[in-house]
Amino acid sequence: MSAPSPITIPAIIDAVGCVLGVRPREIAYRHRDAKTAGARQVVMYLARSLTPLSTGQIALGLALSDHTSVLHGVRRVRERMAADSAFAVDVERARAMVLSLAAAGQARPGPDPVAAAERVLVGDRDHAAVRLSVDETIAMAVRLVALEELAVGTYQLLCLLQAFAADAADAAARRDAIIALGDALADELAGLGYEVTETPAPQEKTDGEAHQDRGPAAPRAAE
C-alpha cells in the first residue's frame, strides 16, 4: 500500500478540473473566461482548508498578484455554495477526490523548487537552467518571493524585540505586536514545509543547571 502523499496545489487543480470540466493548465495559468476563473476560485477555497499554505503563498502558486485575490475567491465560493446546492456538491466532490488521492499516495506532487535549484547549481549551470520546466521555474520563483517575505518579517520581528528590550514602559503594547508577527512567521514557515517545534515550558533550575538552557527550539524541515 502506498504511503499517503501531501496535498499540493497541483493535486487540487487536478481534482477541480476533473469535477468542473476545466483543463488543469488553464486553471494554473490564469485564463480569464468565467468558467476557468470560477474553477480557480474553488482551488483557492480548497487550498485554504486542505493545506497549510497562507493566502499569499496560494496567490503565488496560482500566479495571482496578491493575497487579496485569494480572500475574494474564498469568499465568492462560500457565497456560491450557499446559493447553489449543485455547485456546493461539486466543490465537496473535488474535496473528496483530493483527500482520496492523497490517502492512496496518488496525488500529483508539486515541483520541488529546492531540488530544481540544486540541479542548476551543480555541474553545467547554463545547460541545467534551460532544462528546467515551466512549473519548476514558477515554483522556484514562488519559493524565492516567499523566503524574501519571511526575511522582511524576521527583520521586523528583530526590530520589535530590540525596541521591547530597550523600552520597558511600552513593553505591553510591543508584546502583542511581537506575538502576532511571530505567529504570522510560523504560519509562513508551515506553508513552506517547515515544522516549528514547541518551546518547552520554563522549569526551575539549580545554579548548576542554569548554564544548560539552550533557549527556544529552532524550526526544522518537516519530513
TrEMBL record:
GO terms for biological process: DNA replication initiation; regulation of DNA replication. Residues 8-77 form the Chromosomal replication initiator DnaA C-terminal domain. Residues 195-223 are annotated as: Disordered. InterPro entries: DnaA_C, Trp_repressor/repl_initiator. GO terms for molecular function: ATP binding; sequence-specific DNA binding. Residues 204-214 have a biased composition (Basic and acidic residues). This is Chromosomal replication initiator DnaA C-terminal domain-containing protein. The lineage of its organism: Bacteria, Pseudomonadati, Pseudomonadota, Alphaproteobacteria, Hyphomicrobiales.
